[in-house]
Design a protein that fits this description.
Number of helices: 11
Subcellular location: Cell membrane
Structural class: mainly alpha
Family: Belongs to the binding-protein-dependent transport system permease family.
Membrane topology: Multi-pass membrane protein
Order of helices and strands: HHHHHHHHHHH
Main location: membrane
Distance between the termini: 59 Å
CATH topology: MetI-like fold
CATH superfamily: MetI-like
Helix content: over 70%
Protein name: Sugar ABC transporter permease
Length: 246
């Protein structure tokens, strides 16, 4: 397995697609959570339910849906592109575009789940703390970066770790959105394990790959915990230092 270039390629594909999906996914979810947490925003409860709707759709349905939307040349996206007078795009035969489409599908599926957690975390923060910061002259940006985010640390850790685990286990979108992408550019680790077992019938090798996937997921989960812990400790030390100066 270690000598297999295809296995390491599947690791690279998985990490690349995960990075392309996780950054916009968490960013959009956090920004929308900030908006939906404001009491002045009417219809916020309805929008929360709408944003969560993709989580109720099965991964198989999402994979087939995005495959149909981005198909060449008659998919919905290409119909829009053609209506604008542009040439239709063959997403499947472009390695980077194929990865981007899968990343978009994953982002669309998961960001509603993150909105729920982020909204709960923001609403759990005492309004007195935010009002006191506003009285002290803190700007909206300072209240978010110095108060909201540090106080949401447990939820941020949970969302980050589950996003790491879920992202490294991606399979349905990789298998169903596109087939026969050049250079196996969308073959993820789990899809590689599946193909090894049920396409090439190498069951022993597939079992070895599954252990490798477990080690990789555990490694990145531990790294994410260490990074968030270090940042939390730095925040705590800074807070104590400020109290000491007072």
């Amino acid at each position: 397995m270690i000598e297999s270039g295809y296995f390491f390629q599947s690791i690279g594909n998985t990490l690349l697609i995960w990075i392309m999906s996780i950054i916009p996914q968490l960013t959009i979810a956090f920004l929308l959570a900030l908006i939906l947490s404001n009491k002045w925003f009417r219809g916020r409860f309805i929008l929360r339910n709408i944003y969560y709707f993709p989580n109720l759709v099965t991964p198989v349905t999402i994979g087939l849906l995005f495959g149909a939307m981005f198909s060449y040349p008659g998919g919905a996206i290409n119909n829009i592109i053609s209506a604008l007078g542009l040439e239709a795009v063959d997403f499947q035969n472009n390695q980077m575009l194929a990865r981007m489409v899968i990343a978009i599908a994953i982002c669309w599926k998961n960001f509603g789940f993150n909105i729920i957690y982020f909204t709960a975390g923001i609403n759990s923060i005492s309004e007195e703390v935010l009002e006191a910061a506003e009285v002290d002259g803190a700007s909206s940006w300072q209240r978010i970066t110095k108060i909201t985010i540090p106080l949401m640390r447990p939820i941020l850790i949970y969302v980050l770790v589950t996003s790491v685990i879920g992202g490294l286990q991606m399979f349905d979108e990789s298998k169903l959105v596109f087939t026969n992408v050049p250079g196996d550019a969308t073959t993820t680790m789990v899809k590689y394990m599946y193909d090894s077992a049920f396409v090439r019938f190498q069951f022993g090798y597939s079992a070895a790959v599954s252990y490798g996937i477990f080690v990789i997921i555990a490694f990145f989960s531990i790294i994410s915990l260490i990074v968030t812990k270090d940042r939390g400790d730095d925040y705590g030390k800074t807070k104590k230092a400020r109290k000491g100066r007072k």
